[in-house]
């Protein structure tokens, strides 16, 4: 992709989280992603930037959009993409993450995309393998490509990120999406509010440069962006909310609650959505929703990230 290749060299070999990226690194990835959007909108959707490169998707948690998005991104760049089906692999026979990774590493892939239920899994892998590693979600830690695709969606709709007020609402405690978004939005100068019942807030939230709002009315007032999060019931050991009905009443996004946000506020959700739990269908499918744009931007962001990490101008032996 000539446009992207004229952009400055991206300085990192892995993408393990938003933490550690500078505002310049983030903008560089978003600029590259902007250039990648047009490829997916052409009838001929394939370029040869990653021709001859091998991408392995290693997903230990089920995923629809993230895995298919990484797969399409790699294929559109011309890479050979392999999806490791963990459910039917040696992992089921007790193989450890590191042993699986070392086996795959011996097949000399160029890039490994990992999703894992444990925080830190991607960083651990990056120390053990010889190729680039992308974190596609590690436990409740980070999900950097989701934050990047959210930022791209916002930047394209609003023209900027700095100065915007973004309300992130719902299950902040279990959400890697929230954590990565808070880091990214703060890095680019947005004002970030979080809205959640106290049981769904992490203990360290006060140190994350966000305004904590106990009600939707306070959190959404004058907001430019309303980002809803899924209630991650699979990560909950006990009862964090009294009932789903009550949760929707207080924290679910409906037309009435959205009224206090800016008239042109964007409504976002990373998916998968629980309709009627954190978001009403009329809002999810309504005129302010950019949920489908987020999915489209996901492919572009993942193309941009893989291109940037595998930039042929970089000496592949460096370990930065
Ligand atoms: C998110 C995830 O897996 O962290 N989904 C996604 O990547 N599209 C959010 C979620 O599962 O709620």
Automatic annotation (TrEMBL):
Signal peptide: none
Gene3D superfamilies, alphabetized: Aspartate/ornithine carbamoyltransferase
E.C. designation(s): 2.1.3.2
Keywords, alphabetical: Pyrimidine biosynthesis, Transferase
Record-linked PROSITE patterns: CARBAMOYLTRANSFERASE
Stated role: Catalyzes the condensation of carbamoyl phosphate and aspartate to form carbamoyl aspartate and inorganic phosphate, the committed step in the de novo pyrimidine nucleotide biosynthesis pathway.
Self-association state and partner proteins as the record states: Heterododecamer (2C3:3R2) of six catalytic PyrB chains organized as two trimers (C3), and six regulatory PyrI chains organized as three dimers (R2).
Name of the protein this chain belongs to: Aspartate carbamoyltransferase
Higher taxonomy: Bacteria, Pseudomonadati, Pseudomonadota, Alphaproteobacteria, Hyphomicrobiales
Protein's gene: pyrB
